[in-house]
Amino acid sequence: MTLPHKASPVPVSDPAPAVLTEPMLTGELICPPEQIFDAAAVHARIASAAQTCADSAALRGQVVAILRDVQKSGRAAIAEAFAAQPFAARPLTRAYTYLTDGLVRTVLYVASEILHPLANPTQGERIAVIAVGGYGRGEMAPASDVDLLFLTPYKITAWAESVIESMLYMLWDLRLKVGHSSRTIKDCLRLGGDDFTIRTAMLEHRFLAGHEPLAEELDERLKSELFKGSGQEFIEAKLQERETRHRKQGERYMVEPNVKEGKGGLRDLQSLYWIAKYLYGVQDVAELVPLGLFTREEFDTFVQAEDFLWAVRSHLHLVTGRASEQLSFDLQVEVADRMGYEDRAGRRAVEVFMQKYFREATRVGELTRIFLTKLEAAHMKGAPLLERIFRRRPRVKPGYRVVHGRLDVADPAKFLADKVNLLRLFEEGLRTGMLIHPDAMRLVTANLDLIDDDMRADKEAQRIFLDLMLKHGNPERALRRMNELGVLSAFLPEFEHIVAMMQFNMYHSYTVDEHTIQCIVNLAQIERGELIEELPLASSILDRGVNRKVLYVALLLHDIAKGRPEDHSILGAKIARKVAPRLGLNKSDAETVEWLVRYHLLMSDMAQKRDISDPRTVRDFAKAVTTVKQLDLLTVLTVCDIRGVGPNTWNNWKATLLRALHAETKRALETGMEDLNRANRGAEAKKALREAMENWSKADLKTETGRHYDPYWQGLNLSTHIEFAEMLQALEHSGDPGAMEIRLHPDVDRDATRACFAMADHPGIFARIAGALALVGANVVDARSYTTKDGYVTDAFWIQDAEGHPFEASRLPRLTKMIHKTLKGEVVAREALKSRDKIKKREKAFNVPTHITFDNDGSEIYTIIEVDTRDRPGLLYDLTRTLAAANVYIANAVIATYGEQVVDTFYVKDMFGLKYHSESKQRGLEAKLRKAITEGAERAAS
Fold this sequence. Notes:
The protein folds into five domains: 18-218, Beta Polymerase, domain 2; 232-379, Nucleotidyltransferases  domain 2 (Four Helix Bundle (Hemerythrin (Met), subunit A)); 402-490, Hydrophobic Seed Protein; 492-676, Hypothetical protein af1432 (Orthogonal Bundle); 696-941, no CATH class. α29 crosses α31. It is 55% helix and 10% strand. The chain starts with 32 loop residues before the first helix and ends with a helix. By secondary structure, it is α+β, with helices and mostly antiparallel strands.
C-alpha cells in the first residue's frame, strides 16, 4: 500500500506518543537507560522517516534499519558494562528486557499507528501486547527468546491480523527469536487449562503496550478462573516436569552441566518462584520470607545462587553468540576468564570457577528441598481415614518426631544441648529409613560451629560416624546429605577442600566429593551382593571377609588431597595418618588406611600401564603389597575407584587386567616368587599348545615350539598361540616371501577386537599397522610384537572403536583392506592422517603436559619408555614411526587412556638387543619423541 505523506506525518517537535515513551521496566540497570534505548531519539528518527518514505514497505525498511542500529548500540553498551561488572547479573537481565521492551513497543506503535492506522476503532479492534515467560518476568539473557501474547477481545479481525503480521516481520528482521501466540481471553483460559507449559508462561504475563483494560481483564480472569483452587495440580505438574528434566540433563555433579535445565540450575529456582506465585501471588522471591517459606538467610542464598547462575548463563550467550546453555569444557575456560577467576595454589582458574558453580548448584538443591517440604505441609491432602488408622509409622527414638513422614527434632534446645546429636540425627534417619525434615536441616546448618575438636574426639561421635558407613547398608544417603549440609566437612575439616571441586579433564565425570561418594556407593553395592555377575573378584573378596572399617575409611580419604600442588597420593597418606586415629581406628588399621591412600593408584597403574605378563611387573607389585590381605583390600578399592570415575569408565578390559594381576600376584605371594620364572611359564604354555593341537605332527609342533623366544610364550594366551601357529604354517606353505596373514576376531572377554598379523620381518611393520588402524578409526588398547628365530614377526593388536567397544564385524573388511594397502605402501599413513588428525574444539581447553620416562628396572630384558601426553588420532602411529626410524625394536605397547590424556608404554630394545642404559641415548630418543608429539599436535590444532 502507498503511504500518503499527509495521512500520517509524525512531527519531530511533537512529544512522543504514549506507546513510544520510555520502556516501562526500569529498576536497576547495568548502564544508563538512554545508552540502552533512548525512546525520544528513536521517535525523532522514525518521525523523520515517516515524512520521507513513499510507501509502507519503504517505511518498514527504514524503521528496521533505525531499530537495528539502536539494538546494536544498546547491546554493545550492555555487553561493555557487563565486562566491567561480570557478576552484575540482575541489572544485566533487566537491561536486556528494557531494550527489548523499547523495540517491541516501538514496533507496535509503527504497525498500529502508522502502517495500519484506525481513526475510530471498534470494540473488537483492540489489541494488547503482553510479554510472557522469562521475558514477562523481566529476566532476559543476551540470546533469550522474546515470548509475546497478542491479546484481542474477540476473534481476531483483519486489522489486528495486519498489525501482528507487520510487527512480527519487523521483529524477525531484527533477528529476534520471537515466540508468539494470538489469542482471546477465552482461548487463554481454555488452553491454559489443558497445558501446564502455557499456564506457566501466562503466570508471568506483563503488559507491554496497547489496550491496557484488556490486559487487566486477562489478569483478573486468570487468577479467578484458572489459577484459583488448582494449586495442588500445578505443584504436581511442576515437580513431574522437574524430575523429567533432571533425568534428561543428568545430575548437578556432572562436569559439563546445563546452566538452565540441569539439576541445581536456573530452571529449578524459577520453578520455586512459579509455584510461590501461583499459590500466593507473590511478585518477588523476597515475599517468601514473611510467608515463612524461606528464612532471611535462605532468601539471601536464593539471590546469590540466582545472580551467579544468571551471570554464567549470560557470559555463555555472549561468548557463543547464541543461546548456549551447556557449560562445555572449552566454554568453562572462557567464562571463568570473563568472570575474573585466576589460577591459585596449583589449581587452574577454571577449576576454581567450577567449584563455585557446583557449590551454588548444591545450594539450589537444598533450597528446593526446604521449599517443597514447607509447601507439602501447607497443602498436603488429608489421607483417607482407613489409611490413617492402619498406616504403620516407624517408631522414632526419644527427642525426635515425625512431621509429614519426615524426621524432625522434637525440642531444638534439648537437641543442641548435646553436640553429638548433630550426628545422631543422620543415624536415626538411616535407622528409620526416613528423610530428614527441612526444619531439622536448618537447625543443623545454623549450628555447625558446635562441631569442634572436642566433639571430633568424642568416642560416641566417632562410633556414629563410622556406623553411618558400616552399619545401615546405605551410606550414600547419609554422606551425601551430610556433605550438602556442611556436616561432613565440619566433622572432617580436611574434606572441605574437595567439596564441589571439579577435576578439569574428560576422564572424571563427577566432582571430587561426589566421586568419593560414588566409590562408597559401589562398595556398598558389592557388599549387598548386587554386583556379583559384574564384579565376581571383588564380590568374592568381600564374601571371604575383609576389614570393612579400613576399606570404607580408605575410600573416604583416598582423594582427600586432590587439587593441591603436591602429589595427592603422598599428601593424602599424610592426612590419613592424622585423620584415621581421629575417627577411632587403632594403630594397625590406621597404618593400613595410610598405605591404601598412598598406593591407591598403584594397582590401576600396574594393570593399565605395564605388561602384566612380564614377571618383573608382578614381582615388583607383589613386593609393594607384601600380603594377600593388603592385595585384596587394594583390589576392591581399585575397582570402586575406577567405577566411581564415571558411568562408562569400567569395562571388561579393565576387569580382565585387574583379575589377571590379582591372580598372578596372589600366586606369587602364596607360593613364592620363583613361580614367576620365565622358563617355568614358557614350559607350561608350550605344553598347553601341544595338548590343544594334538592333530599336528610332532615335527610341526617341534618347529612351532622352537621358533619363538621366551617372552612370546608368557605374553599371549593359548588361543592366540594357536592362531599364530596356524598363520605361520600358512605362510610357510604359501612359498611367497611377501605374503602376510591377517586375522581379526572379537575378544568378548576384553571388550575389544583382536587383530593378529604374521609376515616376514622387516623394519617399521609395527608403525605401519598402527597407522592403518588409526586411518580406520580403531583405538589400540594393547599391542604385542614378537620376532621369531626364523625371520617372521607376529603382531597382536587389541582394538576398540571410539566409544570403547569392540570393533564392529561390519567394519572389519574395510580394516583388513586398509592394512593391506598400508603394508604394501599403497597408502602412506603419515600423509593420509593429516586431514583426520584433529582435536575437537571442546577438548582444546585442556592442558596436558608431556612427560617421557625411561625405566630399566621394571623389566628384566626391556627398557620401558612411558609417554604421558594428550591423546589424539594418529598419536600411536607418530610415536612408533619415530621409534622405528631410530632403530628401536618395540616388543609390546600398552595403551592407557584417561579422557584427553593417554599413557603409551613401550617395551623396547636397541638394534643389538640391549636396554637403553646410556643417558645420552635416552635424551636423544626423548627429543625425537617430543618433536613427533609437537608436530602432530600442531597438525591437529591447525
